[in-house]
Specification:
Radius of gyration: 26 Å
Largest sheet: 7 strands, mixed
Strand content: 15-25%
Bound molecules: nicotinamide-adenine-dinucleotide
Number of helices: 16
Strand order of the largest sheet: 13-14-15-12-11-16-17
Structural class: alpha/beta
Helix content: 40-55%
Number of strands: 19
Length: 510
């Protein structure tokens, strides 16, 4: 069943969607869709408000981010409860991955944005008569389009980066999790962000499409490869810069000398956290033959300890979208048909009406299976045995995706060397998935996993136009390169070329 359904409406009225809980299948109410004109109005209001916001300065803007962080810290459960209602994820998971990470990001940018985005003088190697100032200015109005898997964090975090840099924001949260988007809007309001600076528009792909065409100055998109491609096409046509945070198929490499206990626990957490609906979930494991039996045994033992549930204490919640559950079932079916063995799970959990798929471990998988090639985005951990680390790296790189990766070995140096050989935007040694939570870490993908980097210094810079301002220091009537062009001037330039770049003086100057 679809959890987001069209409601038949009266002609002329706004479109509406009916929402259902993925955990209990209880009705969650209806969502009124913002149409193209509502989106344009939101962008206009944001643009008007941005002028004063930009001039307000870092101290003022950081104050609002800090206030938002305090509000999260003082009453986290008010946020957790609402996120849990529409996603079904365990409350502890929502607390740690959505609220705590968001509070840290808010405080981080509040404290550091002024320094990271400060104007600075850059020494000039050749044109010593010029002074170079590099300044960062907000792009203007940023359109932020977000997915449903971490509906609060993935909306709040880019908003914080855009706002602190002096931009206004129009957020379009996923239609699957609109209330988490509403929570973000309420938080900014309570934190005192001035009217108009932050706008939210609600709806599905049509509303997202309208935002792409509404005259924003940048798009920050997080979602699937298919939609990302469409977003890139439209941004390309409109010459609007965009960052694309897309899907992943993250490999895990287990070396012979790995701490198998830690690696097995890491594999289970990396694959089943948020029911596998993490762009940087561990989606495929390559374990060196010599330790494959011991590693797999521990993975299966750890998996057996996981509890599913729709209330109270449990580790693995439901899938959040019915369409995604259908993909998970298809990938497992395909793997089994091609010879994979199910060591745990492998089916929907019959104890619940909601979208629960049992934490699943597969063995004997091969690279011709969908489970090893396409993003599954569900609680499935396929394990493949390999001869050695070289073979593991070759398989890891045999993928259209390149978001994150993790490597497990007792030698941190070897782990780092292997991580560097994997074609991915990020990698982790002896841990998994942590990258997005480490606010300093530039985050993003290569290949089909996306374009651009978010978070940390690069995230803030990405919300700005970096401009260079060159200031002449000496004055005088003219410059050597200016008119008139004469034979004497050309001869002088040739002599300068030979003397400076034809000798060691040039190397010293460069
Ligand atoms: P999706 O692409 O279906 O939707 C993402 C957002 O785009 C939603 O808000 C949706 O309404 C909107 N949208 C849909 N069609 C649109 C259009 N034509 N124009 C503009 N906007 C449109 O993705 P999803 O199913 O919500 O999210 C799951 C995907 O997101 C997975 O592939 C996952 O890996 C990826 N993801 C990536 C990251 C990352 O940081 N790289 C993080 C989380 C999720």
């Amino acid at each position: 069943m679809a959890l987001v359904e069209r409601v038949e409406g009266t002609p002329g009225a706004r479109r509406r969607l009916r929402l259902t809980s993925p955990a209990t299948l209880a009705p969650l109410g209806e969502l009124e869709i913002d149409d193209a004109s509502a989106v344009r109005d939101a962008v206009d209001r944001a643009r008007k408000a941005q002028t004063d916001w930009k001039e307000a300065g870092f101290a003022q803007r950081s104050y609002h981010l800090e206030r938002a962080a305090r509000l999260l810290a003082v009453n986290p459960d008010a946020f957790v409860e609402r996120i849990v209602v529409e996603t079904g994820k365990p409350a502890t998971e929502a607390l740690v991955t959505e609220i705590l990470t968001a509070a840290d990001a808010l405080q981080f940018y509040a404290k550091r944005a002024r320094h990271i985005l400060a104007d600075r003088t850059v020494p000039v190697h050749l044109f010593k008569t010029k002074k170079l100032r590099v300044v960062h200015r907000p792009v203007g109005v940023v359109g932020i389009i977000t997915p449903w898997n971490f509906p609060f964090l993935l909306a709040l975090n880019p908003c914080a980066q855009a706002l602190v840099a002096g931009n206004a924001v129009v957020l379009k949260p996923s239609e699957v999790t609109p209330d988490s988007g509403r929570l973000v809007a309420e938080l900014w309001k309570e934190a005192g962000v001035p009217e108009g600076v932050f706008q939210i528009v609600q709806g599905d792909g049509e509303t997202g499409g309208a935002l792409l065409e509404a005259g924003v100055d940048k798009i920050h998109f997080t979602g699937s490869v298919a939609t990302g491609r469409r977003v890139a096409e439209i941004c390309g046509r409109n010459l609007v810069p965009c960052t694309l945070e897309l899907g992943g198929k993250d490999p895990m490499i287990v070396c012979e000398d790995a701490d198998l206990e830690r690696a097995a626990r890491g594999a289970v957490y990396g694959a089943f956290s948020n029911a596998g609906q993490v762009c940087i979930s561990t989606e495929r494991v390559y374990v060196v033959d010599a330790v494959a039996d011991a590693f797999t045994r521990r993975v299966v033992e750890e998996t057996a300890l996981l509890r599913q549930g729709d209330r109270g204490e449990f580790e693995v919640g439901p899938m959040i979208r019915a369409e995604q559950l259908a993909i998970v079932e298809q990938h497992v079916r395909d793997a089994v048909a091609k010879g994979a063995r199910v060591l745990a799970g492998g089916r929907r959990n019959p104890d619940y009406a909601g979208l629960f798929f049992e934490p699943t471990v597969l063995d004997d998988v091969t690279h011709d299976m969908q489970i090893m090639r396409e993003e599954t985005f569900g609680p499935v951990l396929p394990i493949m045995r390999v001869r050695d680390e070289d073979e593991a790296v070759a398989f890891a790189n045999d993928s259209a995706y390149g978001l994150n990766a993790n490597v497990w070995t007792r030698s941190r140096r070897r782990g780092t060397a292997i991580a560097k050989r994997i074609d991915s935007g990020c990698a982790v040694v002896n841990d998994c998935m942590i990258t997005y939570g480490v606010t300093e870490a530039p985050f993003g993908g290569v290949k089909q996993s996306g374009i651009g980097r978010v978070n940390g210094e690069q995230g803030l810079l990405g919300m700005c136009h970096t401009r260079s301002i060159l200031i002449d220091r000496l004055g005088g009537r003219s410059e050597p390169a200016w008119y008139p062009y004469t034979a004497r001037k050309a001869a002088w330039m040739r002599r300068a070329l030979r003397t400076v770049w034809g000798t060691s003086l040039g190397r010293w100057l460069a």
